[in-house]
From TrEMBL:
It comes from the Bacteria. The chain crosses the membrane at residues 57-75, 102-118, 146-162, 220-239. PANTHER family: INNER MEMBRANE PROTEIN YBCI-RELATED (PTHR35531). The keyword Phosphoprotein does not apply. Keywords: Hydrolase, Membrane, Transmembrane, Transmembrane helix. This is Metal-dependent hydrolase. It comes from Paenibacillus rhizoplanae.
Length: 240
């Protein structure tokens, strides 16, 4: 399912369900629901979340920096010939990696920066850094598309929000939105493996992402979500 559909469906259903259950809809809860709706796809370099977080211009900056570093290593005299040539070519050649690999590299560099220089944002800096490291090394629809990830993300949000004045519902918003993303992916031909190493696949085979039928299924799900949001946040208050 496309990222924009995940964003609307997971966020809309999560906030609607929270409202119906009597949980406060705070700005942090909304932000967590939005991020969590896309978070499972952080293991896919071309996903909506990763493309927004690591746009093309950052990749171009990294490529230029790597080429510049290669030229510097060649002339700096750090290594004797021919090792200076080999070192320069090794560093410079990284700039010609495919965009997917370059995004993984950027994610790792951002993670290192968060570990090293973002103490003021503790514990969110460490959380984000760990997520980036894991996402850059695991395969798509691997560990991030399991119930283990839902439980881990919910538990992480729960413990982080204990000292926050308006953080009581963050773990609910995060785990529910994350879980809804996985449920939406279970509609596809590929499905998900929710409890590896158990080989069971949750796969309803209703659609394939990017196909005409897939687009139609996504539109129906989005329209149903919007209808639910209107009912919960527009019609229900007026009826009361």
């Amino acid at each position: 399912m496309m990222g924009k559909s995940h964003l609307v469906i997971s966020t809309g259903v999560t906030l609607s369900a929270m409202s119906l259950l009597g949980h406060a809809i705070t700005l942090p809860a909304v932000a967590v629901a939005v991020v969590s709706s896309l978070l499972p796809d952080i293991d896919e370099p071309n996903s909506m979340l990763v493309r927004k977080a690591v746009p093309e211009f950052l990749l171009r900056i990294l490529q230029v920096a790597l080429i510049g570093a290669g030229i510097y290593l060649y002339f700096a005299g750090i290594a004797e010939p021919p090792w200076n040539i080999a070192l320069a070519l090794l560093v410079g050649s990284v700039s010609f990696l495919p965009s997917r690999r370059l995004r993984h590299l950027v994610m790792l560099l951002i993670a290192l920066a968060l570990f090293a220089f973002a103490d003021a944002y503790d514990p969110w800096n460490y959380i984000a850094a760990c997520v980036l490291v894991v996402a850059s090394i695991v395969p798509h629809r691997g560990i991030t598309h399991t119930l283990y990830a839902v439980a881990g993300w919910g538990a992480l949000l729960y413990f982080v929000s204990l000292d926050m004045n308006d953080g009581g519902s963050l773990w609910i918003a995060g785990s529910l939105s994350y879980g809804l993303h996985l449920l939406a992916d279970s509609l596809t031909q590929r499905g998900i493996t929710p409890l590896p190493p158990i080989p069971f696949k949750l796969r309803l085979k209703l659609m394939s992402t990017g196909t005409k039928k897939g687009n139609a299924v996504e539109k129906v799900c989005v329209m149903l979500t919007l209808a639910l949001v209107v009912y919960v946040f527009v019609l229900t208050p007026s009826l009361g």
